[in-house]
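Hi there,

I know you've been waiting on this one. I reran it after we fixed the sequence typo, so this is the corrected version. Both the input and the resulting structure follow.
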Amino acid sequence: MRRLAAIFALLAISCLLRAGAPDYYDRAEAQYYAADYPGAITIALEGLAQQGIAPEDEVELWSILGSCYARLGAFDKAAEYMILCYEYDKSNGDARGLTSSLINLASMYVYAGNAAQAEGYALEAIENERTIGRPDKLAMAYGKACDVYHALGRDTTALHYADLAVTLSEEQLDRPVQAVRRSQRAYPLEALGRYDEALQELKWAETVFREADLRQNLSVVCFQLAQEYGRQGRSVLERQYLREAADLTRELGDYPLLQKICSRLAQSLKGPDPALAFSYLEEASAIQDSISRSKSSNVLELFNIKYETARREHTIAVQNLEIARATRQKQAFTLIILFLLIVAAVVTFASLRIKRSERRLLQSNEQKDFLFRVISHDIHSPAVAQLRGMQMLRAHNARMSGEELGEVLLQLERQAESEVELIDNVLRWARSKSGSVRLEAVRFVLDDLVKEVVAQHAGSAQSKGIAVELHSPGNVVVCSVRSNLMLAVRNLLSNAIKFSPKGATVEIILDASVDGAVLCIRDHGIGIPEDRLDGIFDTVCSFRRSGTDGEPSNGLGLTVSRALIEETGSGIGVQSREGEGSCFTIFITNLEENA
């Protein structure tokens, strides 16, 4: 109730500071101070309905409407008009009036039960007042931020702003203002369970309010103190402060607060003095009935205001009938344009779908052509070469030396290995494109997989005198599709050996990452031309070369490797310079096991 009284005081000050709209504003203001809030609203609305009203006159009437609706408890409606005042102050550069508008707005939204909406206005009030430098207004803005965050249940933040308000008031303002801010700080302290600190703040505020004879503030603090002592089980002090608070609120006519105090007194006296407790309960009930009747009256008055407002709006609507007809014609034209735009959008969307289908069909044809090319050339040619080689071997083996025989057999072995590798890649690539492969993620040691692949290529590496070195921190564990990674690493290591000179070194480097691992295969061979790097993973790429010892190459291994790796959600990259070697890096992402 203390904060509600402060809101009404701010709104009243806001109304007094406004000067303008001499006729309607003065009449509405007179009704406001006569407590005829519906009458003041009616006059203010009549003033706003006048043609050609000046903006500065409008804002005066908005302030009256905001104050009246707040008095009638229609806080949402009050906030609507306070927003208009705020926007006027902001657009016209009235920084000094803007702080009051912002604080009023924040208050309205808190009491409307929408503290989240109030937060931005409270913080804007603080920033605005910091540029002006008025300590009293800045402390008030800090206090309002405390109220907002307390209402949001964010009491740590509320306490932060309460501390700022108290510090500022202690440095630059008088003791009564300090007492207001310190009693306000008691709310977040209580919510955070720091009861002793809250009690200390309230006792200090009580002393100052008694010295300054601030009876309204004293009544609220006495009620807070009674609640604190009740929480501590000190019933005598609780009842003492409740009685004093009740006497003060009766004298001040603050009946909503008096109703709460009487209810608390009845509860506290229920055991020691049932008769007195019953009298306080009767008083609380009578006050509640009075408040309910007042609220009902306010609701009825607001309904009457809405009715009168609707009647005037109907009259204006009748007067503007011709304008409405013209507007309907414009709307019909707009609908026609909108319909045409929708039709154009549908046609465009259909065209895009057709184009996407065409692209997919073209891609499918390219893949089919690629498979035919591989089968007709890359598989057929090595098979023919093997057949001829074996025919030659059968016809001339008697006249061939052991060295020549070994050389022929080595060439046949290489061709067979290349053909098997190619067939594996083609089958795996085709399955990946058809979606028939079921991926199963398992947890395994990446070092073991690499060692297995190295063992498979030991013969080809040994024949060229190539050393394959593994660098690993040891036992790098990943969770991925093991078969995919096995074939991809096999392809990459095969290429590294194939395109390295005799006696060279191929390095395999493992390292664990935050969500997986990194596997690099680095050779010091012939490398890849810079202008070919962008397309080496594509099926349409025509770039292929024989190995350093004449080994055949079909160019499919890298395409399949990328497809296999990307199926697991991982990635692959390459760095290469012609004549210096290449480094292929697989970034392995951990998957859910058995995904």
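Quick highlight: Residues 156 and 188 are 7 Å apart (CA to CA).

Best,
R. S.
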